[in-house]
Design goal:
Layout: H1 5-8, H2 83-86, E1 93-99, E2 105-111, E3 114-119, E4 123-128, E5 131-137, E6 143-149, E7 152-157, E8 162-167, E9 175-181, H3 184-192, E10 197-199, E11 205-207, E12 215-221, E13 226-231, E14 235-240, E15 245-251, E16 257-262, E17 267-272, E18 276-285, E19 288-299, E20 304-309, E21 315-320, E22 324-329, E23 335-341, E24 347-353, E25 356-361, E26 366-372, E27 375-382, E28 389-396, E29 407-414, E30 418-425, H4 431-440
Antiparallel strand pairs: 1-30, 2-3, 3-4, 4-5, 6-7, 7-8, 8-9, 10-11, 12-13, 13-14, 14-15, 16-17, 17-18, 18-19, 20-21, 21-22, 22-23, 24-25, 25-26, 26-27, 28-29, 29-30
């Protein structure tokens, strides 16, 4: 049974909570049963409706792979420009590292220069201006997902619960738990009626409003006030934030649901360890509102490990354990747009901001892709983490005043127990352009850019 391909590739670098070690053996049924990270080297995928080798463009393939770098701390390729050629060229680079040796970083959320980090220490750390600001702790369940909505923070945990925290209006450094999904009263009320029990794995039954396994992802639809939680129990659940009620539980996949994303027009996307990406539409039939399966975008052997939708909801991105990022164009009836090939190992997280897409991987790198229409070009590969990149959060750089050069602050959390903060420009030249500029300046050096070999 595949529990979560994310955990497969990190078994060699970390351990889950002691009381969960024997419960979650996350080995893919479609791959060799090996815990070594090399097990996640690229595998062939059985794409049925399109060519797996199709690239988004000539400038975005594996040519961007960073494998000939001698060190994860190697200097940025931009550093080899001469002063004359680099004078007005935007740069992507590391701002700082936030390190607190207490556990692997599993989740991030950022808003208004405030960063929340979740780890297997069960602590949620709050960072402000790159400094630790405060912290609060959950009594059980490592923190696998964080969502910020107004003055509330929602956290998804290993124990299958969603916890709600409220910021003290008088002292923003104080956070108090103000709820848990589902509530104790709702569990008690539901347990009385036999019809509220559903069959779960191994012929066990459980109350439908409660996740029976770890929560892997959270997504908020602020227009409808609905919170979506995806779980290893193969379901996603829909919560009405206003009254803390679970309004729907959807048996979505045949294996662990690794990602859920709520988009515009009541559309929800889910990705699973069973290798599928599914599209759900929220539809009303009389007084009953349900999420109905409308389409399966992908069906492959490799587990789907991450999903993201761009700001306008026009592009859907899917990262998987074979290191590929597939995308679909919503305006073209969700037709397959291409594949981004920049990672050697599994893609563990995705994020989108402006015209940029960010992919974090078990290969310890972050690829930055710029989208122009359906064409994606790799701008740079961020290196520096010494462990798999598990989560990403992106925020607009408020210090950037230029309308022509929009900049973003990118936070990356890793299983090396650190969070790194990067500055990224949308107008930075792509890697091929950089090589041509270096060549024209007469100082071209192949060792200064990522290898063209995969």
């Amino acid at each position: 049974m595949i529990k979560n391909m994310i955990e497969d590739q990190t078994n060699s670098t970390m351990l889950e909570e002691n009381n969960n070690n024997n419960n979650h053996s996350h080995i893919s049924s479609s791959s060799a049963a090996s815990n070594d990270v090399d097990d996640f080297a690229m595998r062939n995928s059985n794409f049925s409706a399109y060519d797996a080798n199709r690239l988004s463009c000539e400038g975005s393939p594996m040519m961007m792979s960073p494998w000939n770098q001698t060190s994860p701390f190697a200097k940025s390729p931009w550093s080899n420009f001469s002063e004359s050629s680099s004078q007005n060229i935007p740069q992507n680079g590391l701002i700082c590292s936030l390190v607190r040796e207490e556990g692997h970083i599993y989740s991030l959320a950022a808003k208004n220069d405030i960063l929340y980090t979740g780890s297997d220490s069960k602590n949620i750390r709050v960072w402000k201006n790159m400094q630790e600001f405060s912290a609060f702790k959950s009594n059980s369940g490592l923190v696998k997902a964080i969502i910020i909505c107004g003055d509330k923070i929602f956290t998804g945990h290993q124990d299958g619960k969603v916890r709600v925290w409220k910021i003290n209006p008088k002292d923003p450094s104080l956070h108090k738990r103000c709820g848990t999904f589902p509530t104790f009263f709702d569990i008690f009320k539901a347990s009385i009626r036999p019809k509220n029990y559903v069959e779960v794995k191994r012929k066990r039954t459980a109350i439908w409003i409660k996740h029976t396994d770890a929560i892997s992802c959270l997504s908020m639809n602020q227009e409808t006030g609905l919170l979506y939680s995806a779980s290893w129990d193969r379901t996603f659940k829909v919560w009405r934030v206003q009254n803390s009620k679970c309004v729907e539980s959807v048996k979505a996949h045949d294996d662990a649901v690794n990602s859920v994303v709520s988009s515009i027009n009541g559309i929800v996307y889910t990705g699973s360890a069973d290798g599928t990406v599914k599209v759900w539409k929220r539809e009303q039939n009389g007084k009953v509102v349900r999420h109905v399966l409308t389409q399966t975008l992908l069906s492959q052997e490799s587990a789907v490990t991450a999903l993201a939708v761009n700001g306008t909801g026009s592009i859907v991105y899917c990262g998987s354990s074979d290191g590929l990022v597939n995308f679909w164009e919503v305006e073209k009836q969700l037709s397959h747009g291409g594949v981004l090939k920049g990672h050697k190992l599994a893609v563990l997280c995705l994020s989108s901001a402006g015209n940029l897409v960010f992919s974090g991987s078990a290969d310890k790198t972050i690829c930055i892709w710029r989208r122009e229409g359906a064409v994606h070009t790799c701008l740079s590969v961020l290196t520096g983490h010494t462990g798999p990149v598990k989560c990403l959060a992106v925020e607009e750089d408020k210090e950037s005043t230029s309308t022509e050069d929009k900049k973003w602050v990118v936070y990356s959390g890793s299983l090396d127990k650190s969070v790194k903060v990067w500055t990224v420009s949308e107008t930075a030249p792509d890697l091929q352009q950089m090589a041509l500029m270096q060549q024209s300046e007469g100082n071209f050096n192949w060792e200064s850019i990522p290898s063209a070999k995969y």
